[in-house]
Design brief:
Layout lengths: L5 E7 L8 H9 L2 H7 E5 L6 H15 L4 E5 L7 H13 L4 E7 L5 E3 L1 E3 L2 E3 L6 E3 H6 L12 H11 L4 E9 L12 H17 L3 H18 L4 H9 L1
Parallel strand pairs: 1-2, 1-3, 4-9
Antiparallel strand pairs: 3-8, 4-5, 4-8, 6-7
Helix pairs in contact: 7-8, 8-9
């Protein structure tokens, strides 16, 4: 029996299934019969409920299907056999409640997990979590529909005494906001708002303002397109 306790939650946005690296890799590694009962695809293209809506619905689906674990996947995540083997091993051990792979970019730089504001934080993609733990932390906070949802979830896990276990496996990850110059003004404003909300929630607003000052100084030197917007947000 292979990962029968796991439901994979794949979130799509303006993308066909066949174009998703996550879907392609799962189809190459797992049987159609398995995927039919163990993969939930949430398409946000026509009714965007963002990540919080997709994850909430996916967790409900997991409970309905009697799954004890959920795995969150970005559309551009490339799943490997090594990851699936390690997932099976760690899930079966009964020792862990939350599992995260090491996410690295094409240059080999580790993107997740990291330390932020003194907290171990991990990106959603590839994260596995027991469904009872999702319920324990109160689900996913609607104040973070997209940006910083992963950080706030990690903060809630810490508050509830739930450890995040780093799996001994790497996955290639393409960071969508690696260069803020390539995101829309609306998305960058969303990131700023979520970043400030997160810093406020964990009592680190002073540290957040210091990070913004450093960002502004760096961007002034390079004439970054969002320098003035960041300065306005800093003093807003």
């Amino acid at each position: 029996m292979y990962l029968d306790d796991v439901l994979f939650i794949l979130v799509l946005y303006k993308m066909a299934c066949k174009d998703s690296k996550a879907y392609q890799s799962l189809c190459a590694l797992l049987s159609p019969e398995y995927l039919e009962k163990s993969l939930y695809i949430h398409d946000n293209t026509f009714c965007n409920t963002y990540l919080v809506g997709a994850y909430t619905q996916g967790c409900k689906m997991a409970l309905q299907r009697g799954k004890r674990w959920v795995v969150f996947l970005d559309a551009d995540a490339t799943i490997t056999q090594t990851y699936l083997d390690m997932l099976k091993q760690d899930v079966s051990s009964g020792k862990f409640s939350v599992l995260v792979p090491r996410l690295v970019n094409s240059d080999g730089k580790q993107l997740s997990p990291t330390q932020r504001y003194g907290i171990k934080v991990a990106f959603n993609s590839g994260m596995a979590m027991r469904t009872d733990v999702v319920q324990q932390i109160g689900g996913f906070d609607g104040r973070y529909p997209l940006d910083y949802l992963d950080y706030y979830t990690c903060w809630q896990l810490k508050k509830h005494g739930v450890a995040i276990h780093s799996m001994d496996v790497e996955l290639l990850h393409q960071l969508s906001v690696n260069d803020y110059a390539n995101v829309t003004k609306e998305r960058y404003q969303s990131i700023l708002n979520a970043e400030k909300q997160f810093a406020t929630d964990i009592g680190r607003i002073w540290q957040y303002r210091m990070l913004l000052v450093a960002r502004c100084c760096k961007w002034l030197l390079t004439c970054h397109r969002y320098t003035l917007l960041t300065i306005k947000h800093l003093f807003g």
